[in-house]
Every structure is written in structure tokens, then in C-alpha cells.
Write a structure and sequence with these properties.
about 25% strand; 7-stranded mixed beta sheet; globular; about 160 residues; 7 strands
Length: about 160
């Protein structure tokens, strides 16, 4: 099971780390604390304090995910194959993360990436799952067969 929120905005933002605006991409987190840390980090980095103060609560969902082809960008072997410099810290740079994801997205059959959580770069066991929606069936129940509300979290 993984945690996620905000499925209606997949690929719309130009602030995403692993895709550019317009690429249909869904981000899920390993656990609720990873989702909260990533969400809060976005407000610290990408939002004004006034806007962050107005966001009180977010619904959180737990998903069962079924995929065939997932590549882990938490693996030193993969970093070596991709000739990445200074991983996983290099993923702090959105242009590096995006170009890495675009290369994999456009040259392989990979459906999703397991990526280090930028909020926990010192702990590769804390991850996010980046799904390339154009490589998945149009019916989300085919790859997300079970979805349940898992409460809320709040920042601020």
C-alpha cells in the first residue's frame, strides 16, 4: 500500500520534480509521513506563506498499486548505468530529476519510478512512486484496484 493525494491535478503543475507540465504523472508516497513531509516541503519551497496558511487540511488516500515495470532510482547500480553525478543529491536539481525521468519515460517501457523522497534524501527507504500515466491503462482501477480514505493531514 502507498499513500497519495490530489489525483485530479496529475501533470498540471510546472513545479513538479519528475515531470514537466502536461506530462500525465501521478505521485504517491510510501507512507503518510513521507507524503506529509513532501507536501510541507513544497509549501516551504514553492508557495508564499499566505497561501500555505490557507491550506489547513488535506485528505489522504491509501492505494494498492499493481504495476509491471518499475525502475528504482534509489539503486546505486541504476545511478551508475545512468551516469548520474552525486546521486541522490543530484535529484534536488529539478532539471536533473526531470531529464532523468524523461529519458526513462521516452526510451523504456518503464511505467513508474521509485524515487528517493527529497524530504528524506539521507534515508533511501523513504520513497515516492512516480507513475507515468500514459503508459498505464486508461481505467485507473486496472493499476489502482483498491483505494481507501486514510484520514487527513495538516500543515502549519
Amino acid at each position: 500500500m502507498v499513500i497519495g493525494f490530489g489525483i485530479s491535478y496529475c501533470g498540471r503543475s510546472n513545479e513538479n520534480r519528475w515531470n514537466v507540465a502536461g506530462e500525465p504523472t501521478l505521485y504517491l508516497a510510501k507512507e503518510k509521513d513521507v507524503a506529509l513531509a513532501e507536501y510541507a516541503r513544497h509549501f516551504q519551497v514553492n508557495r508564499t506563506p499566505r497561501l500555505a496558511a490557507k491550506t489547513y487540511r488535506r485528505q489522504v488516500y491509501r492505494f494498492h498499486v499493481e504495476l509491471d515495470l518499475v525502475l528504482s532510482l534509489r539503486s546505486p547500480d541504476v545511478w551508475l548505468e545512468l551516469s548520474l553525478t552525486n546521486p541522490p543529491d543530484c535529484f534536488k536539481d529539478k532539471s536533473v530529476a526531470r531529464s532523468t525521468a524523461q529519458f526513462i519515460r521516452n526510451t523504456t517501457a518503464t511505467q513508474a519510478l521509485l524515487v528517493p523522497s527529497v524530504a528524506f534524501l539521507d534515508d533511501l527507504e523513504q520513497w515516492c512512486l512516480v507513475l507515468f500515466l500514459e503508459k498505464l491503462p486508461p481505467d485507473p482501477y486496472a493499476f489502482l484496484p483498491s483505494v481507501q480514505l486514510d484520514g487527513y493531514f495538516q500543515i502549519g
